[in-house]
Design goal:
Blueprint: H1 2-23, H2 33-44, H3 47-62, H4 68-72, H5 83-109, H6 117-121, H7 124-138, H8 143-175, H9 180-186, H10 191-208, H11 219-235, H12 237-255, H13 260-278, H14 282-300, H15 315-333, H16 350-380, H17 391-407, E1 412-414, H18 417-424, E2 428-437, E3 443-451, E4 457-458, H19 459-470, E5 474-476, E6 483-484, E7 489-495, E8 499-508, E9 518-524, E10 529-537, H20 542-561, H21 565-580, E11 586-594, E12 599-605, E13 610-614, E14 621-625, E15 641-646, E16 652-656, H22 658-661, H23 668-675, H24 681-693, E17 704-713
Antiparallel strand pairs: 1-2, 2-3, 3-7, 4-6, 5-7, 8-17, 9-10, 10-11, 11-12, 12-15, 13-14, 13-16, 16-17
Helix pairs in contact: 1-2, 1-3, 1-8, 2-3, 2-5, 2-8, 3-5, 5-7, 7-8, 8-9, 8-10, 10-11, 10-12, 11-12, 11-13, 11-15, 12-13, 13-14, 14-15, 16-17, 16-20, 20-21
Amino acid sequence: MRERINSGMKLGAMMLLCAASGAFVVCRMAPFAAAVYAACCIVCGRYLLLYTCSAAGIVIGAFDMLGTPFAEAGIMTHSEYMALDVCRKYMLLLACVLCIMKIGDIRHARGVNGRTSQDRNAAVLPCAVAAVLIESVFFRDGFAECFVRSLVAGILYMCAFYILQPGILAIGCRISGGDWRKETMDAGYDNNQCIVSNMAIWSMILWLVPENGWISIDLSLMAALLMLIYVVYRSGASYGCGMAAAAGGILSVKHDDIGWIPWMMLVAIVMLVGRALSGHRRFVACIFYILGVLLAAIAAGPVFYGAKEWAAITTTDMTVFGINIGLPLLLFAVLPGSMLGRLADDVSPACLQAAATEISRMTSSKMEDMANTFRRLDYTFAGSEDPGISLSQVGELVDGFRRQIERIGAAREVADEKLLGQIRALGMEDVRVTEVADDCGRNRFYVAGRTTGQGMVLSRQVAGTLSRYYGRNIRVGMNSPSLFFDDYRMAAYEESAIYRGMFHVRRIRKYGSPVSGDNFSVKEYEDGRLVMMLSDGMGSGSLASCESCMMLDTMEEMLEAGFSPEYSIAFANRCMAKKNRGRTFTTFDMVVIDMYDGSMTSFKQGASLTYVLHPGENDNSVEIISSTTLPVGVLDETECDVTNVNLAAGDAVVMVSDGISDMDTGGMMEHLLSEIHVGDSRKMVDEIVGRMLGQDDVSPRDDVTVMAAVLGRAEKSGAA
């Protein structure tokens, strides 16, 4: 439902933009109509509906509803304002744009070529050519004037499209609830282009705002001042002065008075002085806005207000002027904090530097892991006649590390004003949030900022805000400050697992054997994985133990280095097969549980059964995972049984060696697990071993190993 509402709101915004751009008619031209229409079609794809809105706007603008002020100002007379020609010309141009873009979509649907944002931009040149041709057909003056005007029409279309598209894309993305910064970056636009585009859109809208409202209130002046204070507050000097110049120029044309440009520039300069002196504070911005307006009013003199001297200015004039400058200030004061975050890059980039340092650290760590992996593998296979590690396998190892490093995401600044506003609500200002993805797809966040005044904000409060916003359990990272003060500082945050594993292992060697041939490994990795491995060497005794231990050591080294389980198993199998030449082998059983989402993956090569228990009201539901593949070391290349299971809090996983499976007659193990109490992993293992070994009251005829892990819910750590 929410997606439908957001989609409808986005479509409504695109329709309004199309209508507004069509109504912007001056000098027998609608310079933005076709460009805005094309950009809006790229955002939502509703060609015919948006065409109707653009055409309606052109009709309104052409037939003096908005075009009359320009005729009355002497820019052109009514006789020269050929409304019908304007309507026919631009409706034909819109139709050409529609056809060109639709043809491109049809080609894409038929698989002629891929469709990217660059592919859609490729339609700009044909549309510009269409604008040139149509302008030349409808312009009836001399050849030279016709040529110049047609060329201007084509250039205007291309410039307007490239300037306005980033802003229109950002508007559509923000309304639909997406990350507009990411979307625009993916489309090839940077932050500066988006800001300039938004300013151009605001200026276009400002042009359409009428001058006079109720009791001579100047609506265009109020809109210009609101835009100015908003842009200066959010974007700083460069964009603030640009907005002042644009708004002043528009007001100068609408009021036929060039004095509005320096008037707006003076207001902007005074606000920027206040911003530089006191920082990013709304109250200070309001004070310096009032000061700037008063200074601009004094500098303009009484002539600016239609009077020869100050005494001639009436109370009504002052009241109207007070409303014109006061209402924008009131609207700015009540804007939600989520709409007032910084857009300019004028804060010390400590957050980005920390993120870049983290990426460098993770890359260096991966390279160190690669070196350690070679050392440990050399140690594992020391003394073997043929360890079986070829140069090609070394190349595969290096390429595997390259893929891991590539998975480490680049630092991305989070620009969602909803999140930034929630952090500011804690008492923070100058907030910057940077996101970095590690090689496992987990996100780390770096929050930089300072508190307002002399207050302080707990780092865990920020963690709680991040947790609620992302819907994940996020905690304060190690070595991060516990408090934010009025000095600029940065804290790291990381996702924490939502589950925890409780495990227990019990191993009993074969009767008469000094050493168990079964070996196991249980380890929790930093990326939130619980890995349980069980290997049963052929036979029993020292030789079997050595083989199973070598298999587990190799897997631990590969997994520790960050390689995938599939690749690690294949690599270990090739090494073991070449080393043993098929004389000996070992079974291998591994369970990997992701503590972030509860997903479990089972890997088996010739291994015994694995049981997954889902507790119910009366009995447990038992899911059995078996293997049909050969053990490790039989063949150089062999398949591995892979099974995926989704676990929830309270579920349990039981792994057993062949010693248990050989004693399981008549499905006793499954029956036992369906009745067992799932809770304490130690009690579960003891009960399984006791009941299975006690059924015949004899010593085990093979090595016995039982491993059990119970999945529990981890404690919340974000806001604790």
